[in-house]
């Protein structure tokens, strides 16, 4: 793991062509199977982890954009009450289904990560908002020297037709806090489209339940001093169904996570942060 440890976190936005909106799936799976260069030919075992809660109707769009040559596709089902699991199996016969034991996206990703057997792990959403056809660009950034590759809607070439103005402002404020605390240059702390070498998992130790999971991962990656690249990503609106995110509730959880992570570091050095940390985690 020595190669992962560097003195200070380095965050670079990887230059790349702007994302075409043509990448956004408009038609169901049968009509839109997209050919992209084989990841298997590159000799990389890429595991894709998708947390899904009642996404039966969106899975055809999501799976249609998956590149060929994946090592494994893992869908972590969050006790869906629709036919998410059957739909996944019907669309992708080799899919590995993980039935999450707890609740929330954080718990789902933790259990999905535990099931991964690939060299590279990619996370994306099941609601059709993230485009799986972008995966090769994430993998290319990992191969060019990054330990962790963050998708960013706000890096040059990225965009979102989904995020509201209020959420965008909140995200920007949270970026600013984390960047000030850790000397990073994250532009999109709360985005669920990311990729990393599986060897980074011990640094993440995902142990949260909810939508604060991306923040927790980003902060722990920064604390470990791993090399982070950002790649521009285009997010569209969820295709079917309702969002599970509540901006105030989940924004508060993100803030609490940032505070706890900071105190857990500080508490190793002095008494007051240790007391505050214990009170907050009781
Ligand atoms: N397994 C599992 N998946 C979840 C859970 N909550 C959300 N997800 C999935 O996590 C992904 C992101 O959730 P969304 O509800 O789309 O939230 P969001 O993308 O942050 O918010 P929007 O931009 O409003 O869509 C989707 O694929 C959901 O199906 C959960 O408790 N368990
Ligand atoms: Mg969504």
Produce a short descriptive summary.
35% of the residues lie in helices and 16% in strands. The chain is α/β, with parallel strands linked by helices and 282 residues long.
Describe this structure in words.
- With 282 residues, this protein is α/β, with parallel strands linked by helices.
- It has one domain: Spore Coat Polysaccharide Biosynthesis Protein SpsA, Chain A, CATH 3.90.550.
- Helix content is 35%, strand content 16%.
- The strands form two sheets. The protein has an eight-stranded mixed β-sheet with strand order 1-9-6-8-5-2-3-4, sandwiched between helices.
- Helix 2 links the parallel strand 3 and strand 4.
- The radius of gyration is 18 Å and the shape is globular.
- The N terminus is likely disordered.
- Bound molecules: guanosine-5'-triphosphate and magnesium ion.
- The site of guanosine-5'-triphosphate has 23 residues, from strand 2, strand 3 and helix 3.
């Amino acid at each position: 793991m020595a190669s992962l440890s560097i003195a200070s976190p380095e965050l670079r936005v990887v230059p790349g062509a702007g994302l075409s909106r043509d990448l956004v799936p408009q038609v169901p799976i049968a009509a839109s199977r997209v050919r992209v260069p084989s990841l298997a030919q590159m000799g990389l075992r890429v595991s894709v982890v998708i947390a899904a809660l009642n996404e039966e109707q969106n899975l055809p769009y999501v799976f249609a954009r998956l590149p060929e040559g994946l090592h494994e596709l893992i869908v972590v089902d969050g006790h869906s009450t629709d036919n998410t699991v059957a739909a996944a199996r019907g669309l992708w016969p080799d899919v590995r289904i993980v039935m999450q034991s707890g609740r929330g996206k954080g718990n789902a990703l933790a259990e999905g990560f535990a099931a991964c057997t690939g060299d590279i792990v990619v996370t994306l959403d099941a609601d059709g908002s993230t485009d799986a056809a972008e995966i090769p660009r994430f993998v290319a950034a990992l191969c060019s020297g990054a330990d962790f590759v963050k998708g960013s809607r706000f890096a040059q070439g990225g965009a979102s037709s989904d995020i509201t103005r209020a959420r965008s402002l909140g995200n920007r404020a949270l970026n600013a806090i984390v960047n000030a605390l850790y000397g990073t240059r994250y532009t999109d702390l709360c985005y669920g489209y990311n990729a990393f070498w599986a060897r980074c998992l011990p640094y993440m130790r995902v142990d949260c339940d909810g939508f604060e999971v991306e923040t927790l991962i980003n902060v722990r990656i920064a604390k470990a001093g791993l090399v982070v690249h950002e790649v521009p990503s285009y997010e569209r609106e969820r295709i079917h169904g309702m969002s599970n995110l509540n901006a105030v509730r989940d924004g508060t959880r993100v803030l609490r996570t940032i505070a706890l992570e900071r105190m857990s570091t500080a508490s190793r050095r002095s008494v007051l942060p240790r007391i505050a940390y214990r009170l907050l985690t009781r």
